[in-house]
Write a structure and sequence with these properties.
The protein is an alpha+beta fold. The chain is 44% helix and 23% strand. The chain has ten helices and ten strands. The longest helix has 21 residues. The chain is elongated, with a radius of gyration of 33 Å. It comes from Rhodanobacter spathiphylli B39.
Length: 312
């Protein structure tokens, strides 16, 4: 560590300047891979005394196992190429915790171009990393909210449109069946007129929860399509299975016995369902498939509601 004087001619002045900063200066001799110097600030940050930093091996062993390989490979490659560089990694403290470090490295070369030594600074960037992680978490939350219906909590139209296109492409590529249920709450305008919009909102939430409970697979998607309409996207689901699920949705709503005094169907809330299944061919268009499901829902309404229409 006494070789610090080789860094600059006026060692006392530069030592004072370097050791008064929060950045931790260090120097490594390239040929021996030994530390020529490391600032005393390292002990305050990580708990390891400066005298314990003897070789590059000490530096590597105090690095998080998940960071060690790529940091070592990166830093060695950059140093051998004579390129100044920096790396972020987690450093082990003496009490067993980890601190985020940014190492900024300058490569010192001899007159013949060979590497003489590495000089650098370690910076504690834990607070910055925590902020970045919080921002990333917030960004993820905002993205999730942008795909969620604000009232019912299920996926919204935007989310459905994106996944519908994806599953359509997957079904066409893999020659797998894709099913879709389009669901409408019968006489919902009359429900709102009778019970008020607050009760109408509560009804939509209740129906959404019931429909979501019917679809149990991770890839099945329930989304609010708009107003009182919902859609159930069912990848790799044949017609028979989709119709069983449609019947389950209808039965769940009926079993809930939600009063609807203004329904022309009966005294409780009911739903109408349009259903379709397709193994998309290359020439098939998604828009045509969606239009077909919408027409089947319209036919269910024409036929008196509280029913499922699957045939064209």
């Amino acid at each position: 560590m006494a070789d610090f004087e080789k860094l600059e001619p006026d060692s006392t002045v530069y030592r004072t300047l370097l050791e008064s900063t929060k950045a931790i200066p260090w120097k490594i001799d390239w040929d021996s891979k030994q530390f020529a110097y490391i600032g005393p600030q390292i002990e305050a940050l990580l708990g390891w005394a400066p005298a314990s930093w003897q070789t590059v091996g000490d530096w590597a062993s105090r690095m998080h196992p998940q960071d060690r390989e790529w940091v070592l490979n990166f830093c060695v490659a950059q140093s051998q190429a004579g390129v100044d560089h920096e790396a972020d990694y987690r450093a082990l403290t003496r009490d067993g915790h980890y601190v985020w470090i940014r190492d900024v490295v300058h490569v010192v070369r001899r007159a013949d171009g060979s590497v003489d030594s590495l000089i650098g600074f370690m910076f504690d960037i834990s607070e910055r990393k925590q902020t970045e992680q919080k921002l990333a978490s917030l960004q993820k939350e905002l993205e999730e909210l942008s795909f969620r219906d604000g009232l019912t909590g299920v996926a919204n139209r935007r989310r459905f449109d994106a996944l519908m296109e994806l599953e359509w492409s997957n079904a066409r590529r893999n020659r797998q069946p894709l099913s879709l249920l389009m669901i409408d709450i019968d006489y919902f305008k009359q429900y709102n007129d009778c019970y008020g919009h607050l009760e109408g909102d509560a009804c939509l939430k209740r129906v959404a929860w019931l429909l979501a409970s019917a679809a149990t697979r991770a890839r099945d998607l329930l989304a609010r399509f708009g107003g009182e309409e919902f859609v159930l996207l069912l990848p790799e689901t044949d017609e028979s299975a989709s119709l069983k699920l449609a019947a389950r949705c209808r039965d769940l709503i009926l079993a809930e016995q939600i009063p609807h005094a203004q329904s022309a169907v009966g005294p409780v809330l009911t739903i109408s369902v349009g259903a379709a299944t397709c193994i998309p061919a290359h020439a098939d268009e998604l828009r045509g498939f969606l239009d077909g499901v919408d027409k089947r829902l319209y036919r269910a309404k024409q036929q008196g509601r509280d029913c499922i229409v699957a045939a064209s």
